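User: Thanks for the earlier help. One more: Macrolide export ATP-binding/permease protein macB. Can you show the sequence and predicted structure together?

Assistant: Of course, both are below.
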Amino acid sequence: MLRNYINIARRNLQRNKSYTIINLVGLGLGMACAIVAFAVVGYHLNFDTFHTDSDRIYRVVTESHREDISYVGAVPGPLGERFRADYDLAERVARAAQFEEQIMAVKRQNELLKFTEAAGIACVDPDFFAIFNFPMRVGNARTALAEPNTVLITEEVARRYFGTTTPLPDVLGKTIRWNNDLDLRVAGVLANVPNQTDLPQQLYTAFSTLKGAKDPLMQWLSSNDSWGGIYSGMQCFIKLRPGVSAASVDRVFPAFVKKYDKPTPERFNKYLLQPLADMHFDARFGGKVEKKYLLTLGLIGLVLVVTACLNFINLATAQALKRAKEVGVRKVLGGHKSQLLNQFMAETALLVLIATVLAYGLANTALPFINEWFQTHISLDLFQNGPLLGFLVVLSGLVVLLAGGYPGLVLAGFQPITALRGKINQRQIGGFPLRRVLVVGQFVIAQALVICTLVITSQMRYAKQADLGFTKDAVVLLPVPEASKANIATLRNQLAQLPAVTTMSFCAAAPASEFNQSTSFRYDTRTSREAFNINLKHVDEQYLETFGLTLVAGRNLMPSDTVREYLINQTTARKLGLRTPEEAIGKTIQVNEKPGTIVGIVKDFHNLSFHEVIEPLCLTTSLPDYNLCALKINLSNVPGTLAALERTWNGIFPAFPYSYQFLDDHIGRFYQLEEQMLRLILAFAAIALLIGCLGLYGLVTFVVAQRTKEIGVRKVLGASVGNVIWQLDRQFIALVLVAFAVAAPLAGWAMHTWLQGFIYHIDLNVGVFALAVGGTLLLTLLVVGYQSVRAALMNPVTSLKTE
């Protein structure tokens, strides 16, 4: 019987080729989107789940209470050691100071090889490897890092640094030079770090190594007195003892803060435990992807599958009239309703099976682009991904039931006598009202996605084109790996000789940067620290000219290698309670215990993304902190200029690998997640529109076939071609307008909520909605118009002969 069902299903699908192709494309695209959404969501939900007892692992994070509350996924350097000594609540405690974009050098066969490690290196306590499950290939992680200047590397790094033919045991004892400062001895080789982790470092050295570094930041982090500030890479992890709750640890932190932090009612830190499972998702503490975005992605994938199923139902019920006599004959010959239902479900199952194979192929084709867009390492290998295989089975089954259930019941429910007489009417198969509802449902989804796409695109364009308060075009950022007076003077002199370089500045960070040093300060003769923090940027006297910053009062900084003078922004002056910015000129300000005179007020500029408000900020000179060289260049010959910059830089820093970045690309990293979301929603919106148009094309074909004789009568009675076209098109235009009336408020609410995540954002306006509905109407007219014009131009004699 099953074989008979399949054979008949195959013949019916072959007989109705256009119906089959439309449904295959629609279901294939919708299911492909669902597969991609499932894979992306599953990838992110599995971050750091491979660690043993992961439910007992927590990160200590900081809730900083000043004038406002801010959140940092880091803690003061001494916190981990003090917590370990004072409390017996944790089974293990480990500090981890992480440094990204670090330069490593090794000698191999008398050749000096240089490597830039994007994920950098982590300085950790030995207990780090008792908390996290990073297996060793060679050596013992707990004893290997008992001494300073030892390092553990992954197998991948060992192969890259020392050659693929070098046995792993022979790597032990070899030397890696870190930032041309510290020599680290390889004490062990780790297994390669899994992709799904927020601890991506592939090199680990002992925390005690920090004490011997030249870098002031590293020396400060290793100090037992560095409670006054928080470095964003300074993290502390604990593994609670069995039976100890996170709440019980949170209760001891207030007393801990009083003992070490010296809080005041206006300024204090609150330390909290963050579960390891939340690290990847909590944006307040640096999480990469918020769960609400994953939920949205999953819902979009589900909605597109539902859209394809609605399309299938619409076309299947429209086809029911053609199969009425077939049903009547089967029932007269003794066919039961259940057998007819099974026959139609077999046809649906065969179609869905082919669509599933098509969807899997489409998803695999799109996977390289998905991995590139989202910077992921997703695999769709069914033999290594059991959940994906299970999802495909469940998805296919649900689509068969959802898409095939209602049309099957409609067909199986025909009365044989009525069917054989050809008296089945529209109402008995659901009629046009049902199909109108289905078409409206499809276009509600499509138009909502189109509106979301337009709003996100407009906000991204606004973020890129709005006045940031400084110049970001034609500015190249070069690293300064060794900020000595001699190196900076040499680099400045040689770069100044290049014709394409107009101005340059040495600094710690660009005006808008992820690097912001937030710290407390004292103003003038006030005895206590201000209630708000200030962002400190170390810059030279050319900073204002290079980045186009504007002075609103006072003068620029004088050349100096140390802290002597300060510039503050307008926000700082306002929050200090000054009536005019000029009042601050000549006053003393003390930042990080370094006093200086305020000599100028800078016009406010965005030092963070548009997600954040412009914060209090000060600029001062400090040559040892200059790790960037910013150059304003002439764009007439960019390749030649970049080549000249590389030659000059390599001549001064031969021990370091060269790199550069344009400032506008650097700022673009602020909106990386939004850009990723935009690409995906744009793709999904296009697919939703395509599925809707396929369904619309199939439906208008059916409508034209049903109204062929009516069209002939109208033309014989004098109706013009335009009148006939309008009679056919107007009902579909009305459906699109009804869909827009539903989609607009839903999408408007969603986008209004999304825009609230930006302090500076566009306003929702009528133009976005008009463009969405106008574009959808134009697309509808193109799809419907082709069939309408064909029907309107048909010879009425031929039309009247149609049964």
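User: Great, one quick takeaway?

Assistant: The radius of gyration is 34 Å.
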